[in-house]
């Protein structure tokens, strides 16, 4: 993780996401920009946060670890979104792992800064409420997906979530086949079963295998399979 404290850069990112009302100039001058590499953890289960993070570039994978040691995908985070708001408000330890997908940039404000400058700002409090509401919605949606829906539907939703959050630099909507073992675990299934689902999707013309990657060919069919659900 790399830290930067350029107030002009931070202010530009705040304004670029329409958060000028929520985070004023005085706050921007006391924030850090933290840049994470692909696969790097922003926070881990059981840790305690010392402030709030705002995702401004890239995307995050949020997942929990089950008592069996396996992981379960809860959602993907997209900019702009808060990380650590639940823990900060209730002073709880971190509930889920938050991991960078590709390079990510997050603004960080310490608890002291938030308490001193933000605690009574209506625009900031509304931003907190909106993020908490969105998290409740997406976590509930993911819980229903993980418990009630077959692997076919969960995988379709997973692919759509990646598609919707894809980096603008990437022209194709694809997933590396080398990550399928991790993907299967995240979706609560076996690598073998997921491969059978992929083979069926390829046979139906929904996906294609190209040089170790899966590429979406029929987005409409994928949305039909997802049934309106998404991990994003």
UniProtKB/TrEMBL annotation:
<protein>
    <submittedName>
        <fullName>Crp/Fnr family transcriptional regulator</fullName>
    </submittedName>
</protein>
<dbReference type="Pfam" id="PF00027">
    <property type="entry name" value="cNMP_binding"/>
</dbReference>
<dbReference type="InterPro" id="IPR018490">
    <property type="entry name" value="cNMP-bd_dom_sf"/>
</dbReference>
<dbReference type="InterPro" id="IPR000595">
    <property type="entry name" value="cNMP-bd_dom"/>
</dbReference>
<dbReference type="InterPro" id="IPR014710">
    <property type="entry name" value="RmlC-like_jellyroll"/>
</dbReference>
<dbReference type="InterPro" id="IPR012318">
    <property type="entry name" value="HTH_CRP"/>
</dbReference>
<keyword id="KW-0010">Activator</keyword>
<keyword id="KW-0238">DNA-binding</keyword>
<dbReference type="InterPro" id="IPR050397">
    <property type="entry name" value="Env_Response_Regulators"/>
</dbReference>
<keyword id="KW-0804">Transcription</keyword>
<dbReference type="InterPro" id="IPR036390">
    <property type="entry name" value="WH_DNA-bd_sf"/>
</dbReference>
<dbReference type="Pfam" id="PF13545">
    <property type="entry name" value="HTH_Crp_2"/>
</dbReference>
<feature type="domain" description="HTH crp-type">
    <location>
        <begin position="149"/>
        <end position="220"/>
    </location>
</feature>
<feature type="domain" description="Cyclic nucleotide-binding">
    <location>
        <begin position="26"/>
        <end position="117"/>
    </location>
</feature>
<keyword id="KW-0805">Transcription regulation</keyword>
């Amino acid at each position: 993780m790399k830290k930067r404290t350029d107030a002009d850069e931070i202010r530009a990112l705040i304004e670029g996401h329409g958060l000028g009302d929520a985070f004023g100039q005085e706050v921007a001058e006391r924030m850090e920009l933290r840049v994470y590499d692909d696969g790097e953890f922003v926070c881990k289960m059981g840790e305690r946060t010392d402030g709030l993070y705002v995702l401004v570039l890239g995307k995050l994978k949020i997942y929990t670890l089950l008592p069996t040691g396996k992981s379960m995908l809860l959602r993907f985070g997209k900019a702009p979104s808060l990380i650590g708001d639940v823990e900060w408000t209730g002073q709880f330890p971190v509930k889920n792992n938050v991991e960078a997908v590709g390079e990510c940039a997050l603004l960080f404000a310490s608890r002291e800064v938030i308490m001193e400058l933000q605690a009574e700002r209506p625009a900031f409090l509304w931003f907190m409420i909106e993020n908490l509401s969105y998290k409740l919605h997406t976590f509930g949606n993911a819980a229903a997906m993980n418990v009630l829906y077959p692997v076919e539907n969960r995988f379709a939703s997973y692919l759509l979530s990646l598609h919707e959050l894809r980096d603008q630099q990437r022209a194709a909507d694809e997933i590396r086949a080398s990550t399928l073992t991790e993907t299967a675990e995240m979706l609560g299934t076996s690598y073998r079963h997921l491969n059978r689902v992929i083979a069926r999707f390829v046979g139906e013309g929904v996906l294609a295998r190209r040089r170790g990657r899966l590429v979406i060919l029929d987005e409409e069919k994928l949305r039909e399979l997802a049934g309106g659900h998404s991990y994003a």
